[in-house]
Amino acid sequence: MEMTRREGLAAVLALATTACSGNYSSPVNSVGTASAIDSLHKLAKAKGMRFGSAVGAGHSGSGSFRNTGYASLLKRDCGILVAENEMKWQSLRPDPLSFNFAPFDEILAFAEKNNMAMRGHTLMWHRPQWQPSWLEAYDFGTNPATEAARLLTTHITTVTDRYRGRILSYDVVNETVMEDSTLAQTAISRAIGGTEALVDLAFQTARAQLPDAQLVYNDYMSWEPGNEKHRAGVLKLLEGFRARGVPVDALGIQSHIRIDTYDPSTGTGPRQEREWRKFLDEVVAMNYDILITEFDVNDQALPGDISARDRSVADYAKAYFEVMLDYPQLKDVLAWGMCDSYSWLQEFKPLRTDGLAKRACPYSADFAPKPLHSKLAAALQTASAR
Ligand code: XIL
To answer: How far is CA 90 from the centre of its chain?
Structure first.
């Protein structure tokens, strides 16, 4: 059969895409095709779960829905998305009076067009360095508690009104527990009279707005040694929510797992599996659901060799998912980006001492699936149905 010039070009492009992307035009899960790539969301869905990722609204060379290569990964693997930055106050709130919804709206439109759900991240990232600078410098006036409550509730009602029925799960509060287990303080928490008052009001406002949505407290306490106090602080906060009757449904476990120290005997890094299970047991015993909200693997301390490094990252993640998937309360797993090149970890200090890029995500820079992708697929395949 003869090809037209245009068909010829299309065929060449398809081949090129296949070559550099690890066969991403191949049918998902086609049996017998050695290079077929499993859809992580399809595998999750078969178990009553969802798999998803963070995505941005930046230019076409970033981890954005505008990047066609990146968008293909999302379409293959994801049934749920979360905006990497576009719902944060720093992006939504240029000043005390206005809202800039456009970048987030574009991401939501992409998700809906592709039948993907979206999570809301976050209504209050409670760390001073992640507040807009105007808020940290804000003059709360003569009745600071009233003004702080007004600012917070206006923000939450405006956002939740706008996305009513379209976003069913919110990280209402992100990272208010410090690593020494105390609660973070910001200008708005001082103005309202304390961090508990602020976070309680955030959840109460969200619940009044959205009686049926999943309201999540999200944080990065993790299983590596050194996180003991952070975990204890999070448990204390969760206990306090229950004691005060604050409407919180789930703990978002960010899952930025990390190899800070290389252990040649295991090929990966140290972790406190027993203590981590105990932490999770305590969380679910308080009747919280759990989510993995921001999974990636910081390979900062692994030796440079790429194939050994990819294997170690995958093994470390496999061990993590073996524990996490034991909990039927876990139904949503979101990665903080699907492709190494756009991972926030490339800028997150400390960088690798050898100057190499981190290999934290399921896909490499050329959109080829890595061992991490197949280990995630295998973990989901062996998970029990929920
Ligand atoms: C990060 C983004 O990935 C970066 O682009 C941004 O500069 C800073 O925030 N925990 C969170 C996420 O809850 O919102 C953070 O995202 C990563 C750590």
So the answer is: 17
Report the distance separating Cα 291 and Cα 336, nearest Å. 13
- Cα–Cα distance for residue pair 64/58, rounded to 1 Å: 5
Protein residue whose Cα sits closest to atom 7 of ligand 1: 344
Helix (H, G, I), strand (E, B) or coil at 239: helix
Domains of the chain, residue spans:
9-382
**What does the pLDDT look like over 265-285, one tens digit per residue?**
888 999 999 999 999 999 999
Beta strands in the chain (DSSP E): 50-55, 80-83, 117-121, 167-174, 214-219, 250-253, 256-258, 289-298, 330-335
Across the chain, how many H-helices and E-strands are there? 13, 9
Residue with the nearest Cα to atom 12 of ligand 1?
84
Please report which helix (H) or strand (E) contains residue 215, including its range.
strand 214-219
Residue among 291, 303, 384 nearest 336 (CA):
291
The topology under which CATH files domain 9-382 is TIM Barrel (3.20.20)
User: pLDDT tens digit string along 238-262?
Assistant: 999 999 999 999 999 999 999 999 9
The answer, yes or no, to whether any atom of ligand 1 lies below 6 A from the CB of 53, is no
Neighbours of 81 (CB within 10 A): 23
pTM over 0.90: yes
SS3 at position 57: coil
The verdict on the CB of residue 342 being under 6 Å from ligand 1 is no
